[in-house]
Amino acid sequence: MLKEFKTFIMTGNVIELSVAVILAGAVGAVISGFTNNIMMPIVGHFSGGMDFSSFKIVLSPAVTDPAGILVTAENAILYGQWINTLINLIIVGFLLFLIIKSYQSLQRKKETAPAPKPGPTEVDLLKEIRDALKK
Q1: What is the C-alpha radius of gyration for the chain, rounded to an integer number of angstroms?
Q2: Residue 25 maps to which CATH number?
Q3: How many domains does the chain divide into?
Q4: DSSP 3-state assignment of 1?
Q5: 135 domain residue, yes or no
Q6: Which one of 31, 84, 120, 128 is separated from 55 by 20 to 30 angstroms, measured CA to CA?
Q7: Would you say 101 and 107 are in contact if contact means Cβ atoms under 8 Å apart?
């Protein structure tokens, strides 16, 4: 059983999948940092300084005792954070669109290279042999 597990783990597909998962996590962190630290302040600037993450509908306010200690936390629908998530999705989707579009344009350039002229067909070769034999 241990030998079978070792064989399974050492196959190329498992190792490639592991690398892909690790890279996806790293890329996810980079994209989150980009959207949260670079793009969202720009969006906030052009939206009049709004911070969408603070938008909420309070269903029941927080309850504190006379000493100021929190008894019950606030219950709210945080729709502003959802708006931020939608904006992040649009930004990430657009960036992925640009990356894929540029990748595809590079692939098209490689494909448009002129194909080499096809060589003689079998029929042409047989005709040449026939003509050579006649001479």
Answers
A1: 31
A2: 1.10.1200.120
A3: 1
A4: coil
A5: no
A6: 31
A7: no
Question: Is residue 93 situated within a structural domain?
Answer: yes
Residue among 55, 57, 56, 51 nearest 36 (CA): 51
For the chain, 135 residues long, the average pLDDT of each consecutive 10-residue run is: 78 77 84 81 80 85 88 89 84 83 80 72 87 88
Report how far residue 13's alpha carbon sits from residue 24's, in angstroms, rounded to the nearest whole number.
Answer: 16
Query: Does the CA dihedral 62-65-70-72 come out positive or negative?
Result: negative
CA distances from 87 to 2, 58, 67, 90 (A): 48, 23, 41, 5
**Torsion angles phi and psi, residue 92, rounded to 5:** -65, -45
